[in-house]
Amino acid sequence: MSNIPVPGQLYRHFKGQLYRIVTLAKHSETGERMVVYQALYGDYEVYVRPLSMFMEKVDRNKYPNTVQEYRFELQKELIGAPVHGSAHTGYFEEQAENAADINVHPENRFLAEAAEERFGVKKVTEESEAELRPEAEKASEMEKASETAKTLEVETASEAENISEIGKTWETEEDVNRPEETAADDSMEQEELNIDPLVLDFLDAGTYRERLNILSALHHRITDEMITTMAIASDLEVGDGDVEERYEELRSCLLTYEKYEGRRMR
Q: What residues contact 18, with CB distance under 8 A and at least 6 apart?
């Protein structure tokens, strides 16, 4: 078999991708000769293929439109070419040898991706670079803008969370620093809830006759606090004593107001 691959040579697959020969090997079980070669694009993966298959011709029935005669063809113009040699040889060879350069520098990575989208292979030449660089720079700027937006979104969310936590702390501190005020408010609310409905009706009544009727309705369950509340609401002063005595005094005062001052309250 002639033209056996040599380590370091560059071969082009009939679909367009470039590969570098790593070495030749022998199958440990069958003794078949194998070719070990590395892709010069993407993740730069290393492959193994039988030498006979590597050197075989393209199946024209399966791939009628292919240009190459063989599956892999040696790229003689790339052998020994200077780093900045022809427009598509040495320059690309330098790019392919430095795989990390594409991974480390986003702009170079976008150049390779733009070349792959345009030409079907991550091949960047001096001529194509001028055409592809605007696309690569635009893609690089868009990625940077996206990363910046994500960073700002995270920072904004973090600040909002901090403000929320500070607000909760202030609320807690206010509750701790005003225990007496809070307790007094709670007590007042509880007292309002405990006021007898008839007492509320007494406070809202428009005439002394209405108040007398409500007072009579409360007679069987009236308390000192009720009497005091109703007396204050009526601008009266009821003296001390037992509940019945105070009840009669309040009733007597209301009757007097009703008799001498008319049916409407002052």
A: 10, 11, 12, 39, 40, 41, 75, 92, 96, 121, 123
3-state secondary structure of 120: coil
Question: What does DSSP assign to residue 76?
Answer: G
Query: What is the signed CA dihedral for 225, 231, 232, 234, rounded to 10 degrees?
Result: 150
Give the residue-averaged pLDDT of 20-31: 96
Tell me the pLDDT tens digit for each residue of 219-264. 989 999 899 998 998 888 989 999 999 999 999 998 988 887 665 5
Distances (CA, A) of 107 to 17, 69, 133, 147: 21, 35, 8, 15
Look at residue 104 in the predicted model and tell me its pLDDT. 36
In contact, 58 and 71? CB cutoff 8 Å: yes
Residues 124, 212: Cα–Cα separation, whole Å: 104
**Euclidean distance between CA atoms 226 and 216, whole angstroms:** 13
pLDDT one-digit tens code per residue, 197-230 = 988 998 998 888 888 899 999 898 999 989 999 8
Q: Which residues pair with 24 in a beta bridge?
A: 35
Calculated CA dihedral for residues 36, 40, 41, 45, nearest 10 degrees: 30
Which tokens in the block code for residue 213? 């009727």
pLDDT tens per residue, range 115-167: 666 666 555 555 565 666 677 677 777 777 777 777 767 676 667 677 667 56
How many C-beta atoms lie closer than 10 Å to residue 89's C-beta? Answer: 21
Residue 5 CA to its chain's centroid (Å): 53
